[in-house]
């Protein structure tokens, strides 16, 4: 087989999308990206899209702990010019052993791979800049869950080098060599209401007495949207970002927030055409995630330009919001959203089975390999959930919004600055004829927006999907699910 680097040199103006499938990059023969293709994807993100940081997801997959070795050996001419750990960054997303019991040992294996990657990079570059020095802990709920990762690495991954073998004078470092880097940065990812609202307290305790140069904090946008609705997710992020900025100022430790946005309005509405809107919505965020729809459903030059705008922006101050007002609106909207979800859950789950996957993941305990359980409802992952809703002609952004009073709506627009823009982007994909579309929410959205245009091609695709469901032939809906996704420029 030819060197992949030479196989996939692409023109600057070429689309990044595979011709046969939405969300499938040009370099993949399958819509499911596996380990080797994800190594290539990391190289592509660095070299062609000009991303400076790539998250390497070790959670729920057949993880490849040799990613640094493969990148440096396969693409040596590129990485000779760009050093991992200095010019480009690779950040590991770990499994959380408190939540994902079957993945707990993978956490240890992944942490053990960091010193090995250091040795490879030292040999390649001739210096001691660590190629990996940060890890992300998903579903963080406490100070100890972050600190356990930090202390385990210091005490057992690196610390074991000082132990002696068989009571003799020889230490493990004499036998194997030194273990570096001596410390790693642990980035907590907060995903649920309680942990997001308490994130400042959790991080404050974690950074105390550690003498850190800085701390990064990651806030989810997709899972809160599934659990609490679109409005609820925005409100939680606004409160959390405000609190973290206050902590940064009072603690004296710079704290740099990350937000995990996708391209659907329900998941953040970040795509190459909406950089300005998302940056205005979250001015205090230092890092925005660039997900598959952003990278692969737009021409490469538009993707690069969008990433350039994000890279060159100067973060400002996070928005100051009134917590009590925010939580009052949150309670109303999330409660109504959950009522809608309870009735829609069976058809969402049924449709979700036919939403194509994008990453090869191992089967977790749960209905859909990595299901989210919320209020007794088994829900699919964010992309699958969102794609299923849109395929039914039900933009999930509108679910529960009719709970807003006139006063709530006025206050919401002061908190959620681009609420009407996001709602408008979503409503074009509604299907007024869908039996699953909550009429009160749809009518409320129409009152807010006034005249708006439906995407007729998208409606026709969802009409067919709905017909297949009514005739109990949903297994035939796949091509129309993809057709609708192609119109939206995101799967979910």
From TrEMBL:
Keywords: Carbon dioxide fixation, Lyase, Magnesium. Its cofactor is Mg(2+). Belongs to the PEPCase type 2 family. SUPFAM superfamilies: Phosphoenolpyruvate/pyruvate domain. InterPro entries: PEP_COase_arc-type, Pyrv/PenolPyrv_kinase-like_dom. It catalyses: oxaloacetate + phosphate = phosphoenolpyruvate + hydrogencarbonate. Homotetramer. GO terms for biological process: carbon fixation; oxaloacetate metabolic process; tricarboxylic acid cycle. It is an enzyme of class 4 (lyase). Its EC number is 4.1.1.31. It comes from Methanomicrobium antiquum. GO terms for molecular function: magnesium ion binding; phosphoenolpyruvate carboxylase activity. Catalyzes the irreversible beta-carboxylation of phosphoenolpyruvate (PEP) to form oxaloacetate (OAA), a four-carbon dicarboxylic acid source for the tricarboxylic acid cycle. This is Phosphoenolpyruvate carboxylase.
């Amino acid at each position: 087989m030819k060197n992949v680097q030479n196989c996939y040199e692409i023109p600057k103006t070429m689309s990044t999308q595979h011709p046969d499938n939405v969300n499938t990059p040009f370099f993949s023969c399958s819509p499911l990206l596996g380990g080797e293709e994800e190594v290539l994807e990391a190289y592509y993100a660095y070299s062609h899209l000009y991303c400076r940081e790539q998250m390497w997801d070790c959670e729920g997959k057949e993880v490849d702990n040799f990613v640094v070795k493969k990148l440096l050996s396969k693409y040596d001419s590129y990485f000779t010019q760009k050093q991992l750990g200095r010019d480009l960054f690779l950040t590991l997303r770990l499994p959380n052993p408190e939540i994902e019991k079957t993945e707990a040992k993978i956490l240890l294996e992944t942490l053990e791979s960091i010193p090995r990657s250091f040795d490879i990079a030292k040999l390649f570059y001739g210096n001691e800049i660590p190629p990996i020095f940060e890890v992300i802990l998903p579903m963080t709920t406490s100070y100890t869950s972050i600190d356990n990762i930090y202390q385990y690495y210091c005490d057992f991954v690196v610390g074991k080098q000082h132990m002696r073998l068989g009571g003799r004078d020889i230490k493990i470092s004499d036998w194997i060599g030194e273990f570096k880097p001596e410390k790693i940065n642990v980035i907590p990812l907060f995903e649920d209401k309680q942990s997001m609202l308490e994130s400042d307290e959790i991080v404050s305790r974690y950074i105390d007495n550690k003498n850190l140069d800085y701390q990064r904090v990651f806030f989810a946008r997709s899972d809160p949207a599934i659990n609490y609705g679109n409005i609820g997710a925005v409100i939680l992020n606004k409160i959390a970002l405000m609190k973290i900025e206050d902590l940064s100022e009072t603690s004296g430790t710079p704290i740099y927030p990350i937000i995990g946005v996708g391209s659907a309005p329900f998941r953040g509405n970040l795509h190459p055409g909406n950089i300005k809107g998302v940056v205005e919505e979250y001015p205090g965020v230092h890092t925005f995630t660039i997900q598959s729809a952003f990278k692969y459903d737009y021409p490469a030059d538009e993707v690069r330009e969008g990433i350039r705008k994000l890279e060159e922006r100067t973060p400002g101050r996070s928005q100051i919001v009134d917590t009590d007002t925010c939580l009052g609106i949150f309670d109303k909207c999330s409660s109504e959203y959950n009522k809608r979800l309870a009735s829609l859950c069976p058809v969402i789950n049924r449709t979700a089975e036919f939403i194509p996957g994008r990453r090869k993941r191992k089967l977790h305990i749960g209905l859909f390999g990595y299901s989210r359980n919320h209020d007794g409802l088994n829900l699919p992952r964010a992309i699958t959930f969102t794609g299923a809703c849109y395929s039914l002609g039900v933009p999930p952004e509108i679910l529960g919004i009719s709970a807003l009073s006139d006063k709530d709506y006025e206050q919401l627009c002061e908190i959620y600055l681009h609420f009407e823009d996001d709602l408008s982007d979503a409503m074009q994909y509604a299907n007024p004829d869908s039996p699953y579309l909550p009429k009160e929410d749809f009518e409320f959205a129409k009152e807010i927006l006034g005249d708006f245009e439906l995407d007729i091609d998208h409606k026709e695709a969802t009409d067919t999907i709905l017909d297949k469901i009514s005739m109990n032939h949903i297994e035939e809906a796949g091509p129309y699910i993809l057709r609708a996704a192609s119109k939206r420029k995101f799967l979910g």
